[in-house]
Amino acid sequence: MSAARIVVVGTGYVGLTTGASLASLGHRVTCVDVDRAKVARLAAGRVDIMEPGLAELVARGLTGGHLSFVVGAREAVRGAEAVFLCVPTPMGAGGEADLRAVESVVTEVADVLPAGCAVITKSTVPVGTARRIQSLLGRPDVPVVSNPEFLREGTAVADFLGPDRIVVGSDDPDAAHRVAGLYRQLRAPSVITDAASAELVKYAANCFLAMKLSYVNSVAELCERLGADIEAVTEGMGHDRRIGRSFLKPGPGWGGSCLPKDTSALLRVAEAARFDFGLLAAAVQENFAQRDRVIAKIAGAVGGRLAGARIGLLGLTFKAGTNDLRDSPALSVASMLSAHGADIAAYDPAVDGELPGMTVFGDAYRAARGADAVVLLTEWPEFRQLDWAYLAGQMRGDAVIDTRNLLEPRVVLDAGLSWQGIGRTRVHVLPASVS
Ligand code: UGA
């Protein structure tokens, strides 16, 4: 399809990035949402999501007439050649993916879809969903295609327009090739396969990333017990091209709207297939253990008693570069601390307003005022630029716990504070030598 008529249903992270990016490739894109107020804001060029380049892309699409926003999928899909489903697939009560939003859109548009129009799942959906949609549609003339998205929050537009690969799967190979053709300009390697394999790629990739992080966090714990330095260990591992350098940073545990939900969902899928996926279950377990270890470290730093301790938190979002708080490890740490009776003050450059169980301040120094310990939980680069001597003057105690190994320990120590990272026992003033 050269310049195709495309409908994108759902204007969250994935949907809005998909719609605006496909419009920038020259396709004519209509984005649909049920939220009338959101559609009106988007049609006026107002983007609520903090995502570099997205607002610009939306503005360009609107001005160029390639991109529009409407309410009502039934009207929008008439005349479409491809319909992307980008609606939420949250975690259901039993850890499985909740497909109600996908099913409701499919039912809504089934009888008005033009013959030959591809229905494409972009949200992460369990293996077998394409076939389920096909039977729900009851339209043998409408092919169903799985085209999972691999974008990360904070780099969504760059990831969409410069992907490592495009994965497209359908039991109708011709439809799969047509959908892959929508991305031709991106010149990315494409993997064209059956629907079930494409659906599984997404889970297999996200769960592998989660396992990699749990592995690194476990090795970091071992480093602490053995007197080794995780920063040097991961540097040494990362040079091996079979391992790679990315996704090797230890932290307070992995979170966000995808990895926790997708690991749970794949465990449920494995269970239903009567496969004991012990490796993945252990990675999930390890992620809880990592949070417990962070809490124990903080408790140790304040003399063993969290009740009544004042803790200043730096960073609340699940990672830097986003204002997304969904399933944020920082929020779990905060609620565990407050369950232990600690008094929580916090600052995050992307968060203002009230949050339960803590007081959110507009700057780091204010959050540190009177604190027994300051705990860095999100790797916002601006925390490196803080005036640590001034911050030390605000605190009651002297403990700094850097769960992202972001800070230069020497700077913190020179401010008269103590410093603990993750997986580092000795303070490594000089970077590890790797020549
Ligand atoms: C993740 C995947 O990386 C994307 O490829 C995928 O498309 C997306 O889920 C999705 O399924 O939609 P995202 O949730 O935006 O993207 O976040 P990541 O950048 O993967 O980070 C996940 C968590 O791992 C965060 O809590 C982050 O702080 C943590 N992390 C990441 C580390 O602790 N260390 C690292 O080295 C990297």
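^ uridine-5'-diphosphate-glucuronic acid complex. The two ends are 49 Å apart (CA to CA). The chain has a mean pLDDT of 95.
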